Amino acid sequence: MLSVTVTLLLGLLALSVTAAASVGILGIALAELYSPLSLTNALGELAWGSSAEFLLVAIPLYVLMGELLVSSGVAGKMYGAVSKWVSWLPGGLMNANIGASALFAATSGSSVATAATISTLALPEQRKSGYGAPLFLGSIAAGGTLGILIPPSINMIVFALIANVSVPKLYLAATIPALILTSLFVLLIVCACLIRPSLAGARLSVTRKERIQSLPHLLPPLAIFGLVIGVIYGGIATASESAALGVIAALALAGYKGALTIAMLRQAFESTMRTTGMIVLITLSAFFLNFVLSSIGLTTMLVDFVTGLSLSPLGTMLAIIVFYLILGCFMDTLAMLVTTAPLTVPIVVAMGFDPVWFGVVMILLCEMGQLTPPFGMNLFVVQSIRAEGQFIDVVYGILPFCLALLLMLALMLMFPELALWLPFHVAVS
User: Fold this and answer.
1) N- to C-terminal Cα separation, the chain
2) What is the mean pLDDT of each successive set of 10 residues along the chain, which is 429 residues long?
3) Which residues does 327 contact at the CB level (< 8 Å), separation at least 6?
4) Cβ atoms within 10 Å, residue 164
5) 206, 86 in Cβ contact below 8 A?
6) Are 135 and 199 in contact (CB under 8 A)?
7) Which residues are within 8 A (CB) of 162 and not within 5 positions of it... i.e. 6 or more apart?
8) Which of 28, 75, 170, 289 gives 20 to 30 Å between its CA and that of 392?
């Protein structure tokens, strides 16, 4: 049964069937092959029940919040301000790519949106300042992955729904790893530029006065992030309600800056509907697949098989990590998450690992999947906006950042407290 499932899924992906359709077709095929009951009759009820989940409302709202910040010009001014504050570091603009990605990630929740936004802002500066292509492009692609690790993360909301864990706890668990990973990316760039100064590009000359004058451009995204996350941890609002507050704040900010026009709103709404439609369709297909897997007993069978191998908990986790590293090379990360999490979460819990900790590990593995060729989404986003040069430049550029991600995974295995300390010391539901 497991071999048939894997073969069907890989076959659909090889035929370039979209992620949502692949997951849905796989669920229908398994139901017809292995269930004596007509599980497809439950499609309507499952689709209604899962789409009525209040937590799902947060997804379009977080997407819209990020779109509004881009369309209103806030993101562009934020990038300029960050570049002024990190100009003293070796590899100045590459560090700005990481810093601006982290800030934008705190208001968008999407890896692809973060990579696309920072690419649009950074690539013209790369040409003017003489930075070498590979490492500069790699810093944009790697910085973009922070969009699904730094709260509010859309992928974490999806994982929380699948694994039945608390979104606020997941957000808390990701906070320290996100800070460490961002620092690792910056440290990597600094060391590379110290070893090979030719990578550093032209140094940006900025006075203290110019840095101070740029502060107002950093405050809006930080204030919106503080609002969105603060009301969750303060027990004032749920994740969905805080997303709505973030949209209101973004609209108010756009109005204050004089950018709130019908054309801007139309563009933001269209982009939001396109992205949300893709995410929700994948999620609904995943709920049906999860229902089928449970009904035919595949989930229980897989857990019994893995536990019967008598591997140590660490050995099992390493095997799961290798599995995801390979799968991430060939599969969209959101589809990978919704398809495999129902299978791996029960195994992880049976081995004694905390599901909240595994949620952060899973998101780190999804980040790796966004970077690893041949189907790393962020690579294609950066190259498509670049619209010149060779794709291999982006691939070479992300290799050092993949090593940083592997180091972060190793730290998570050695020190689980990096993810678990905050959830256990801050009272959230």
Assistant:
1) 38
2) 65 65 79 80 74 74 84 82 83 86 80 80 78 85 89 87 88 93 94 84 76 84 86 81 90 87 89 79 75 74 69 88 82 77 87 93 91 78 78 87 95 95 75
3) 336, 340, 369
4) 8
5) no
6) yes
7) 286, 290, 337, 338, 341, 342, 345
8) 75
How does DSSP classify residue 41? G
> Alpha-carbon distance 306 to 201, whole Å?
51
Residue 422 identity (one-letter amino acid): L
Structure tokens at 409: 């995974």
Report the distance separating Cα 397 and Cα 395, nearest Å: 5
Q: What's phi and psi for 196, nearest 5 deg?
A: -125, 90
**pTM for this structure?**
0.79
Question: What's the rounded Cα separation, in Å, for the pair 400 and 420?
Answer: 27
Who contacts 297 (Cβ-Cβ below 8 Å, separation ≥6)?
A: none
Do 144 and 368 contact (CB within 8 A), yes or no?
no
The domain locations on the chain are 56-281+377-425
Handedness of CA 210, 212, 217, 221 (dihedral sign): positive
Do residues 66 and 110 make contact, with C-beta atoms less than 8 angstroms apart?
A: yes
CA angle 70, 75, 77 (to 5 degrees): 135
Structural tokens at position 403:
């090593």
In eight-state DSSP terms, residue 416 is T
Q: Provide the token pair at 252.
A: 């108010």
The Cα-based distances of 406 to 22, 56, 142, 403 in angstroms read 29, 31, 13, 5
